[in-house]
Write a structure and sequence with these properties.
Layout lengths: L7 E2 L3 H13 L8 H7 L5 E2 L6 H6 L6 H12 L6 H11 L4 E5 L5 H13 L20 E4 L3 H12 L2 H4 L5 E4 L5 H9 L4 E4 L1 H8 L4 H5 L4 E4 L2 H5 L2 H16 L4 E6 L5 H9 L6 E5 L5 E5 L19 H9 L4 E4 L3 H14 L7 E4 L5 H12 L5 E4 L14 E5 L5 H8 L10 E6 L5 H13 L13 H13 L5 H8 L10 H13 L14 E2 L5 E2 L3 H9 L9 E6 L4 E6 H4 L7 E4 L2 E9 L2 E6 L19 H15 L6 H5 L1 H10 L7 E9 L2 E6 L5 H18 L4 E5 L4 E5 L5 H8 L6 H8 L3 H12 L2 H16 L13 H18 L4 H14 L2 H13 L1 E5 L9 H11 L2 H18 L9 H8 L38
Parallel strand pairs: 3-8, 3-9, 4-6, 4-7, 5-6, 7-8, 10-15, 11-13, 11-14, 12-13, 14-15, 18-22, 23-27
Antiparallel strand pairs: 1-2, 16-17, 18-19, 20-21, 21-22, 23-24, 24-26, 25-26
C-alpha cells in the first residue's frame, strides 16, 4: 500500500508578508515582536497533502513535562483525545496569557482550563520531608469562582478527579455559604492549593487583614459561567476583586468560561480590564442540538396567558415516560411546585422517582436531588434556574421547557443539561402555555440556527458596590486613595469614574455624607497618621463582613414542620397574607400554616383543601430582544402565507384570523388597533419589545395624550404589546402618529431644541410614571449594598418591614437634607436601566419611528388583543368573574370567526386561571368588586387585669 508523504513548502515573500500583516491585525492576540516573528518564520509552511485534521495535528503534540505526560495518560485511560480548542487554551496558559473560552455546554471547557493550569503550574512533587511525612501542599495557586453554591460542590468534584495522577501534591477545597465551620477553621490556618468559591466569599477573603499574605502566591483566577455574572453587580464585584489581586500578583492570569454569550470581545474586556490583551478561544466541537415544540391537540384562536396551562400534561407525561431521565424546567418556582404536584397526581407510581428542585428548598433536599440525578436514580426532576448552570448530570437525556424560555441564551443553557458530554446529542422541547408561544418556539430554533445569542453588558459605575469595596479593602490591610483609584479604574465598570464621584465615595465611607456625619456608625473608614485608610472600629468591621455581597431579595421566612425538619424558605410577603389554618403548596407537599413565630412559619401536613402557591419576587422575565426579533420574523413569514415550521402550522388558525381582522406585525410595519366597546376606547399596539419596555411605552403614550386633554387610562401589558383603555373618547387615528414623537411639554421641547433627544425622552418617561415611588424601591437594595442598612448578623432575622422602614427613613432624610447624594441618583438610574430598560425603550421608539404605521379599526377584539384584555380583567376581578367573562367572550368571538372551534365553559377557564396563581383559586382577590367582606375573627377573651398597687 502506497503511503502519502507530507511535503512542506515554504511561503513566498508575498505570502509571508500577508501572514505577518494578518497576525499583527488580529484584535484578539497581541502582535509578536521582530525576534518572535523571526523564530516562527522557518516553521511556516503549506500542507500539500492533509490526511489529518488540524485537531488531530494538535493532539499529536509530544508531552515534554511530567505534568503533560500525566495529563496524556489521564486522557488515554478514558479513551479520550484532547480537542483542538483545549490544546489552544493549554498553550495560552503555558505562555502566561489570560483569556475567554467560549464553547458549547458539555464540550469540555472545564478540562481545557483546569488541565492547562495543572500542566503550567503544578510542577514536580517535592521530595518527602526527613521524618517521612509528605510535604505540605503548595499554597493557594488557583482560585475557581463559580456563581452558585450548588455549582461549587460539583466543580470541586470535577477538579479533584485528575489530581491523584497529575498533581498528587496539590490540595483542593471549596469555600462558600455552605462550607462547614470545621472546614472554614482549617482553611483559616492554611488555604488549599485550588479553592472553589463564590464572589461573596472572595470578597470576604479580601476583607481579612492578612489578605495579601494569604493570596500572594495566586497565579490563576478562573471565572466559571461568566455570562451569569457579567450583566449584574456580582460581576462588578468580581471585576474589583480581580483588580485588587492583579495589584498584588504581577503576571496573574484570569480566564472566564461561557457557552451563551453574544458579545465575546466586550465580555473579555470586562474580565481583563480596558485595553488589556487576551486570548479569545472558541471551541468548535461537533454537537447535535435538537430544538422542537410539543404541539397541543389544537391551538385556541383566542388565547390568554397560561390558557394551555396543564392541558399539556398528557404530552409531558408521555415524553418523560419515554426517556430514562428528564429535566423539566419552569420559569418560576411557583410553576415548578404546580407541575411537580400535577405529575405526581397523573402518575402516582412515580413517587420517589421524580423530584423537585429550586433555590428555596433546603440545602439537604437540593443535594439529595442532585446526587439522585447524577446516579441515575431519578426519572425526572422539575426545576428552575437552580439547575441552569454547569452541574454535570450525565444520565439526563431530555430537557422540557415549560412555557417560553424568554431568551435564546437561556434555552441553549438549559438544552445543554442533556447530553452533557462531547459527542452526545442535546435535545430540548418547548411546552407552550400560550398559543403564541408556538411562534416563539419556531423563532428560537431559527435564532439558534443563525447563531443569534443575547449580549450581556456590565453595569456602569454602581457606586453602592464601590462603597462596599472601599470598606472591604480598608479591612484587608487598608488603602491609599490615589493608588486605589488607579486600581479601580482598571476595571471595565469604573474605567471612566470621575474625580468627583471618587471623592464622594471617600466622603461617604468616612462620615456618611453631610446628613449622617453626626452618627458614629457611618464613620466606617478613616485615614490613620500615615495616610492609610482603615476601619477603626471592630464592631463596624464585624457588621461589614456580615453583610458583604450584592444579592438582595425580599426577607424570607423559614418553613419548618412543627417538631420536625426544616423544608426551605418562602418570602415573608407571601406568608404575611396568610392566617393559621390556610394551606399552601411547598416542596411538593400540601402544608397547613400553624403559626408564625420569630421569622419561621411552622406547618403541618394538610389534605383536602385547594392550596395557594408561594410567590417569589422576580418571577416574570421579559422577552429578550433577540427572541422578540426572531418572533416578528416568523410572523412576517406567516403574513406571506409561508407556514413551513410545524409550530406555525399548528397556530395557523389564530394567525389567519388575526390577518383577516387586522394585520400581522412584520419588521417593516407597526400594527395598531383602535376599538370601541362598552368599556370605552381601546388602543392595542404591538411593538414586540418585552413587558418591561411595554410598561414604559404605555405609560409614556398615556402621559403624552393627557398633555393634550386630561384623561385617565387603564393599562395592560404582555411581551407582545400593550393596551390603553380610556372611558372618554380618544381619536386614536389622529393622536397616535403625534404621540409617537417626543416634545409634549416645555422641558421636553427645550431639550429637543438643544438637540438633546435622550434628555427629552428621559424627562417624559420619568414624568409619565410614579418615578419617586419606583426609585424608592430601588433605593432599598442600594442602601443595603452600600452599608446604610444593616441586615443583621448571621442567624439574626429581621423582617422586611423593619428593613423597608429603615430604607424609607434614609430615603426621606437624604432627599431633604442631602439631595445631591449620589445614591439617590443611582436609584433613578437603575430604575430606568433595569425596571424600565430605558436603552431598549429608546431603541424601540427609534425602530417604531422607522416603521410604517398600520392603524386598523376592527369590529371586535382580535386574537392578539384578547390576551391583553384578559390581563386587565385579572387585575381587578376575582377568578369567578374573570372565568365567566372569558368564557362568554370566547364564545362570541368564535361564533364571529365561524364557530369551528369548540368552546369550553367557565369551569374549564377557571382551571387554566389557577395555573401559576399566587393564592387559593376560589378565594376572591382582596379589594376586588366580587370579594365579599371577610367575617371578623372573634377576639380572644381578655384576662382580667390585676389591680394597681396602692401608691
Amino acid at each position: 500500500m502506497n503511503k502519502k508523504r507530507l511535503e512542506l513548502t515554504a511561503p513566498t515573500a508575498v505570502e509571508d508578508a500577508a501572514i505577518t500583516a494578518a497576525a499583527r491585525a488580529d484584535p484578539d492576540n497581541p502582535p509578536l515582536d521582530d525576534a518572535q516573528l523571526a523564530e516562527l518564520r522557518p516553521a511556516r509552511g503549506r500542507r500539500r497533502l492533509a490526511p489529518a485534521s488540524s485537531s488531530a495535528a494538535l493532539s499529536s503534540k509530544v508531552p515534554t513535562s511530567p505534568a503533560e505526560l500525566a495529563v496524556q495518560q489521564w486522557f488515554d485511560a478514558r479513551g479520550w483525545q484532547p480537542f483542538a480548542f483545549q490544546r489552544e487554551v493549554w498553550a495560552a496558559i503555558a505562555a502566561g496569557r489570560s483569556g475567554l473560552l467560549h464553547a458549547t455546554t458539555g464540550a469540555g471547557k472545564t478540562y481545557a482550563v483546569w488541565l492547562g493550569a495543572l500542566q503550567a503550574l503544578a510542577g514536580e512533587p517535592p521530595p518527602a520531608e526527613g521524618n517521612g511525612k509528605p510535604p505540605a501542599p503548595p499554597p493557594l495557586t488557583v482560585l475557581w469562582i463559580t456563581p452558585m453554591r450548588a455549582l461549587a460542590a460539583d466543580s470541586l468534584r470535577a477538579l479533584s478527579e485528575p489530581l491523584p495522577l497529575v498533581a498528587p501534591h496539590w490540595s483542593a477545597g471549596a469555600r462558600s455559604g455552605d462550607t462547614s465551620s470545621s472546614e472554614r477553621s482549617a482553611q483559616n490556618q492554611r488555604l488549599p492549593t485550588v479553592l472553589v468559591t463564590t464572589p461573596e466569599s472572595l470578597s470576604l477573603m479580601l476583607a481579612r487583614a492578612d489578605a495579601q499574605e494569604r493570596l500572594r502566591h495566586l497565579r490563576l483566577v478562573v471565572v466559571d459561567e461568566w455570562h451569569e455574572l457579567l450583566g449584574n453587580k456580582r460581576g462588578v464585584q468580581v471585576q474589583l476583586a480581580l483588580a485588587r489581586l492583579r495589584g498584588w500578583n504581577a503576571g496573574l492570569m484570569a480566564w472566564a468560561m461561557s457557552a451563551t454569550l453574544g458579545n465575546l470581545h466586550e465580555a473579555m474586556a470586562a474580565l481583563l480590564g480596558p485595553g488589556e490583551a487576551g486570548a479569545l478561544v472558541q471551541g468548535q466541537v461537533p454537537k447535535t442540538l435538537m430544538v422542537d415544540t410539543l404541539l397541543p391537540g389544537r391551538a385556541d384562536r383566542f388565547p390568554w396567558g397560561g390558557h394551555l396551562g396543564l392541558a399539556m400534561l398528557p404530552q409531558v407525561v408521555a415524553e418523560i415516560d419515554a426517556s430514562p431521565s428528564t429535566l423539566v424546567f419552569t420559569n418560576t418556582r411557583s410553576q415548578s411546585e404546580i407541575w411537580y404536584q400535577a405529575l405526581l397526581e397523573a402518575r402516582p407510581d412515580w413517587a420517589g422517582l421524580i423530584a423537585l428542585h429550586h433555590g428555596s428548598l433546603d440545602r439537604a433536599v437540593r443535594e439529595w436531588v442532585e446526587l439522585g440525578l447524577k446516579g441515575g436514580q431519578l426519572k425526572a426532576v422539575v426545576c428552575t434556574s437552580s439547575l441552569d448552570l454547569g452541574v454535570d448530570f450525565l444520565p439526563v437525556e431530555r430537557v422540557l421547557q415549560i412555557g417560553s424560555p424568554k431568551g435564546v441564551a437561556r434555552l441553549l443553557q438549559r438544552a445543554g443539561r442533556s447530553g452533557h458530554a462531547p459527542g452526545r446529542p442535546s435535545r430540548v422541547s418547548i411546552v407552550p402555555t400560550h398559543s403564541l408561544e408556538l411562534v416563539e418556539g419556531a423563532a428560537a430554533r431559527a435564532a439558534i440556527a443563525a447563531g443569534h445569542i443575547e449580549s450581556r453588558h456590565t453595569p456602569r459605575e454602581p457606586l453602592d458596590v464601590l462603597v462596599q469595596h472601599l470598606v472591604t479593602v480598608a479591612l484587608g490591610g487598608g488603602f491609599r486613595p490615589e493608588a486605589l483609584l488607579e486600581e479601580v479604574r482598571r476595571t471595565a465598570a469604573y474605567a471612566h469614574l470621575s474625580e468627583a464621584s471618587w471623592q464622594w465615595c471617600l466622603d461617604f465611607v468616612r462620615q456618611g455624607g453631610p446628613s449622617l456625619a453626626a452618627y458614629p456608625d457611618y464613620h466606617r473608614v478613616v485615614p490613620d497618621a500615615e495616610g492609610v485608610w482603615r476601619v477603626p472600629d471592630a464592631r463596624l468591621a464585624r457588621r461589614h463582613r456580615s453583610n458583604i455581597g450584592t444579592i438582595v431579595s425580599d426577607a424570607s421566612m423559614s418553613v419548618q414542620f412543627v417538631g420536625g425538619a426544616r423544608i426551605g424558605t418562602v418570602e415573608e410577603s407571601f406568608v404575611a397574607r396568610m392566617e393559621p389554618g390556610d394551606c399552601f403548596l411547598f416542596g411538593g407537599r400540601m402544608l397547613e400554616l400553624v403559626r408564625i413565630r420569630e421569622m419561621t412559619a411552622w406547618v403541618r401536613r394538610a389534605t383536602g383543601q385547594r392550596p395557594a402557591v408561594p410567590r417569589w419576587n422576580g418571577g416574570r422575565m421579559p422577552l429578550s430582544t433577540t427572541l422578540a426579533d426572531a418572533t416578528v420574523q416568523q410572523l412576517a413569514l406567516a403574513a406571506e402565507g409561508r407556514y413551513d415550521a410545524p409550530e406555525l402550522q399548528a397556530v395557523r388558525p389564530l394567525l389567519e384570523i388575526q390577518q383577516a381582522w387586522s394585520r400581522l406585525p412584520t419588521p417593516e410595519t407597526l400594527v395598531a388597533e383602535a376599538l370601541r366597546t362598552r368599556e370605552g376606547w381601546h388602543l392595542f399596539l404591538y411593538p414586540f419589545a418585552g413587558r418591561h419596555v411595554h410598561l414604559g411605552l404605555a405609560s409614556l403614550l398615556a402621559w403624552r395624550v393627557a398633555q393634550h386633554a386630561p384623561r385617565t387610562f387603564s393599562i395592560a401589558v404582555n411581551d407582545y404589546g400593550f393596551e390603553l383603555l380610556c372611558a372618554t373618547e380618544v381619536d386614536w387615528p389622529q393622536l397616535l402618529p403625534e404621540v409617537l414623537r417626543a416634545g409634549h411639554d416645555a422641558p421636553a421641547q427645550e431639550a429637543l431644541a438643544a438637540h438633546d433627544d435622550e434628555g427629552a425622552l428621559l424627562h417624559e418617561v420619568l414624568a409619565s410614571l410614579n418615578a419617586s415611588e419606583l426609585a424608592q424601591r430601588r433605593f432599598r437594595e442600594i442602601a443595603r449594598v452600600s452599608g446604610l442598612i444593616f441586615q443583621g448578623y448571621p442567624g439574626e432575622k429581621r423582617s422586611s418591614r423593619q428593613l423597608q422602614a429603615s430604607s424609607s427613613l434614609f430615603w426621606e432624610v437624604l432627599r431633604k437634607y442631602d439631595p445631591a447624594n449620589r445614591l439617590l441618583a443611582q436609584a433613578e438610574t437603575e430604575l430606568l436601566a433595569q425596571e424600565l430598560d430605558i436603552a431598549r425603550l429608546r431603541e424601540s421608539l427609534l425602530r417604531m419611528a422607522g416603521q410604517r404605521l398600520e392603524l386598523v379599526q376592527p369590529k371586535r377584539p382580535t386574537p392578539f388583543a384578547f390576551p391583553l384584555m384578559v390581563e386587565r380583567f385579572r387585575e381587578k376581578l376575582s377568578n369567578e368573574s374573570v372565568a365567566d367573562r372569558i368564557a362568554r367572550m370566547v364564545a362570541q368571538l368564535e361564533e364571529a370567526a365561524g364557530g369551528e372551534i369548540p368552546v369550553g365553559d367557565a369551569q374549564d377557564v377557571r382551571r387554566t386561571l389557577a395555573f401559576g396563581q399566587e393564592q387559593p383559586p376560589d378565594k376572591p382577590v382582596k379589594g376586588s368588586e366580587d370579594a365579599a367582606p371577610a367575617p371578623r375573627r372573634a377576639r380572644r377573651p381578655r384576662k382580667q387585669s390585676k389591680p394597681l398597687p396602692p401608691l
